[in-house]
Every structure is written in C-alpha cells, then in structure tokens.
Amino acid sequence: MKISSTTSAVLLALTTIVSSQVIAKQPPPEDDPFAELDQAMEAFEYEGSKAEMQEFEQWKAEYLAEYQKFRQEHFQKLDDIRDNLISLWGDAEVSTQEEFVDYSQDKTVKTVLDFEKNEIRVSVLHDNNEAVSQEAVVKALTVQAQKDDTLSQLVGENVDQVLAEKLITSADKAETKAAIAVDKKNVIAKEIKIIEQQSSAQEQQIEKVYDLLNTQEETKPENASTAQSEEASTEKSIAQQKAQIEKEKLARIAKLQAQTAKLEKNNKQKEALKNKKITTFTMPLAHKNDLAKAEPFISQVKNESERWQLSPSLMLAIMHTESYFNPKAQSHVPAFGLMQIVPRTAGVDVNRFLYKKDQPMAQSYLFLPNQNIETGGAYLHILNSRYLRKIKNPQSRLYCIVAAYNTGSGNVAKTFNKDKSRNINRAAKIINTMTPDEVFQRLVEHLPYDETKHYIQRVIKRQNIYLPLDRA
Questions:
Q1: N or C: which end of the chain has fewer CB within 10 A?
Q2: Within 10 Å of residue 447's Cβ, how many Cβ atoms?
Q3: Cα-flanking dihedrals φ and ψ of residue 382, to 5°?
C-alpha cells in the first residue's frame, strides 16, 4: 500500500510558506528572489513526508492489530474443534499439509486422504458391542467422492460405488480404543507439540508480515542513520510480536490442560469413551511416481510458468514440498492449498499485484487448484521481480527465491548481512560477490530457521524430478 499525501499533510506544508524563515533558522538572501520559495518547498516536502510517515506507521499498527486478532480467532477456532474431537474420539486428527481429514456430519466417521503415504483411511467410532459393516465404509467413500475432486485426485480416477467396494475389499482392518482412555499423557503431549509448532510457524510468519509491510513504503530515504533507526524499530516490534505469540502459546497450553482435566473429572464422558471403539479401514493405493501425482496440475503449472517466465520444475518442486499435491493441504501458519498460500502475506501481495485489491485471499479460493497455482506463480514472480530483483546471477536468485518463499526476504537478507539487517538490497550486494554454490551453502548453513534450511534442500533436490517438463 502506497500512502498518499493527506489533506492534513498538505495544509501543514502550506502553512510553512508563511514561516519558512523560522524553519530555515535564517532569512533568505536579498539577492536571490527564489530563496523564499525554495525554503517553502523544502518545508512542504518535510512536513508532507513527516505526515506520510505518521500515516504509514498508523496503518502498520492497525494492520498488526488486525493480524493479531485474526491469529487469536483462528487458533481459538482450532482449539474448540480439538476439544470437541477429543471429547468424542479421545484424540484430535485434523487436516495437515500431507493429509486431508474430513468428518461425517454426526462426527462418527472420519476419512483421511493421506497424500504422503498414498493411502486412504476410514475410521468409524462405535460402541464396543457394535459391529461395523463394510457398507458403512463404502458409503463414507462415495459421499467423500461427491464432495469434490480431492479423493479422485489421490486415487487417480473417479471413485464410484464399484471402485469404493473394491478399495474396501483390499483394506486392512484394525480396532483400537479411544487414545485418551488408553494414554492421556501421550494425547496431551501430542497436542502441546502441535501448539508449539503452530507458535513457531507464527513467529516465522510475523517476520514475513513485516517484509510485506516494509515493502509498501517504497519512497524510504536512503539516509544511513534513518535506515538504521527504522531497522532497530522493526526488530523491536518483531520481538514484541514474538513475545505476544509466546504468551498466547502458554495460554493455549494452560487451557488445553484445564480442558483435559475437566474431561478427566466428567465421569459420564469418561465412561462413554471407555465404551467406545474405533474401527479403521486402511486402503493402500497403487504406487504412483511423482510425475503421475503432479499430472492433474501440469497444464496449469505450464501456463503460469510461461506467463511469469518461471520453470515448471521449480513450481512443481515447491508444490511437491509444500503439499505432496494435496489440494486441501492446510498448515500451522495457516497456509492453504497446493502451493500453501498464506492469505495475509502472499495472498495480499498477489491480490494487490493481479487484482488491485488490498485484502487477504479467502481460504475457499485457495483450495481451488487453478487459483492456487496462479497465486503461487504470481508470488514467485513478485519475489523474482521485486523483492530479490537486485540479485544478478539467476541461479543465486533462484536459491534465494526458494528460501524467501518459505521464510520471507528479510530472513534471507539476515543470512548474508553481517549485522543481521533485514535489508535485502544490502544483502544483494554481498550475494553478487558470491558464486551460486556459495550462496546455496550459506543459506543451508545460516538461515535463521532449521525448517527453511531443510526446505531449500528438498525443493532443489525435487526440482530434478520435474526437469523433463522444462525441456518439453
């Protein structure tokens, strides 16, 4: 968002024409008829710039407050879902990047489409003395197939009743008790680990939010002391945001522990869970190579890669790493869909770039494969042509694009700047003195987050799988 001069800034600047001598602290030379006008214009620019900066800082504060509210509401909703599932199932399995998890309307049947393991799992919650028929599982699969294309994309063909029956016939069947009734400590430990992972993802995400905010101010002065002051202010603000995320994490863990303690004291619910059994049908699918898994999306990837002058292999390697080609992927951030787009960072950037809209993208929009791929391609283009444009060597820039896709350009800059500055233009000067191999090694060894170190290695390795498509 570029902040235009406001009416108040203009009025402030105009009043300085009357008092320009005061601001300049000296009278204009008598032999220079334009001196007074020059002083007035300097005062106009000073006050206008000052007012714009104040307006920009206010906008940043409002954006961060809105983002914090969104974060708190999002995790409150997730925690409520978790508590409800634990009370019914004794455990809370929800969608991730690798798995799409869906429950029946009455919450007694759970369908898991596992894109990493290439298998389907259907679990039925029932009383101890109740038998589960294959017909119920066939129905669950056919209902799932009717909802959208996710199941058929995993299987590789449309799932009708005949195919559903065939899948169930080959399924492995297992019976278990509700996890919390067997090992409460393990269930709580697992959920605490998830909260910690979510908080860590949020800490990394808040840095990407600041990358987004700081790139909106495209007319920042190049004055070194001003830049240093702004850098210190940004780091202080990030530290405050991370402290708030830590506070929220501890509050969520305390609430989880209180909720499970409450469940422990509820004899009626405890007894109900003890009297329940979970029967799971696991259906391993025929092995498909990675190109076969990518096949439904290759045409759109080629369109977007040609549009933005990207390689299809890069887009597909990122898609593979982000979601295992699961169109309903959802991560801790939260990020959604095939290329794991974050609505309030990459989504905002792309909305501004493509559609001139200053708003986040909708979750439902990002679950649509074509729209998700378009957004991912456009965001890679933004990283390439805006954030990282001053990196001259294409291969060095590619390595930095991959890292920035995961962690943001600010953290890429910190990897190269000795003072850990987030200024990517300064970092580009250093990167331009290095070979691509040296750039890659520096990223792998010195990126602030281990997740991103592993991420860039996986993407670059997986790009080799899809190189034939670059030559097609």
A1: C
A2: 21
A3: -65, -45
